[in-house]
Amino acid sequence: MPLLELRGVAARYGALQALRGIDLSVDEGEIVAVLGANGAGKTTTLRAISATVKTSGDLVFAGERLPRRPEAVARVGIAHVPEGRGTFAQLSVDENLRLGAHVRRDRAGVKADYDRTLQRFPILAERRGQAAGTLSGGEQQQLALARALMQRPRLLLLDEPSLGLAPRVVADFFAVIGELNEQEGLSVLVVEQNASLALASSARAYVLEVGRVAVAGASAELQRHESVRRSYLGY
């Protein structure tokens, strides 16, 4: 049974139909990428999962129907790092991290995860008292990820994590994601414009076009898929 499964999921913004019956799954311990042009429905797919857009169809997580309230989705073990990072600019790094654990009640576990997170991201430990809005783009992306990890999720949703970042920063970020997946079994669903990076970092991928799945398969196979190569990989 997949950890996450979407069956016939549709979503709209007013009169605009953004998703037109998406079928998608993520297995336990798997990294899955979602590719597509602007407006294809990638971000809406993540919003559908995190219950920040109205949907129809079946959304199932760990064998149960996903609740349709964002906080309830967080409580079942899904953390969402939105495009633009979504940190609270006026709050400190420390305050942002503690907010990430607001749905948890295990105080000892939160303390242990807080210490572990600062060990994983030493620059955040140095800037604990600094306002999040004064961090560099790469540091803000680290903070967004660290705050999501404070939730101790089973599934991490990442929306365009490479946006606006230098290649070296992006490589370091995806290296951390790979470590979390390999060492802790964290499942990841990542929306990414950098198709080459996304396919290199994932086991499977979906290509969306105008709210539908156009192509799906193993990432290695999609790297050889002619239409995917021409449209998204540039060769």
Q: Give me the number of helical elements.
A: 10
Strand order of the largest sheet: 6-7-8-3-9-10
Q: In CATH, what is the class of the largest domain?
A: Alpha Beta
CATH topology (level 3) name of the largest domain: Rossmann fold
Number of structural domains: 2
Number of beta-strand segments: 10
Q: Quote the average pLDDT.
A: 94
Identify the overall geometry. Answer: globular
Gap between N and C termini, in Å?
36 Å
Poorly predicted regions: none
Report Rg: 17 Å
Q: Proportion of β residues?
A: 25-35%
The CATH architecture designation of the largest domain is 3-Layer(aba) Sandwich
Biggest sheet layout: 6 strands, mixed
What does it look like?
There is one protein chain. The chain is of the alpha/beta class and 235 residues long. The termini are far apart. It contains ten helices and ten strands. The chain folds into two domains: 4-77 and 155-233, Rossmann fold, CATH 3.40.50.300; 90-152, no CATH class. It has a six-stranded mixed beta sheet, sandwiched between helices. It has helices at residues 42-49, 70-76, 93-100, 107-120, 122-126, 137-149, 167-184, 195-201, 219-224, 226-233; strands at 4-13, 16-26, 31-36, 55-61, 64-65, 78-81, 155-159, 187-191, 204-209, 212-218.
List the helices and strands and how they pair.
Layout: E1 4-13, E2 16-26, E3 31-36, H1 42-49, E4 55-61, E5 64-65, H2 70-76, E6 78-81, H3 93-100, H4 107-120, H5 122-126, H6 137-149, E7 155-159, H7 167-184, E8 187-191, H8 195-201, E9 204-209, E10 212-218, H9 219-224, H10 226-233
Parallel strand pairs: 3-8, 3-9, 6-7, 7-8
Antiparallel strand pairs: 1-2, 1-4, 4-5, 9-10
Helix pairs in contact: 3-6
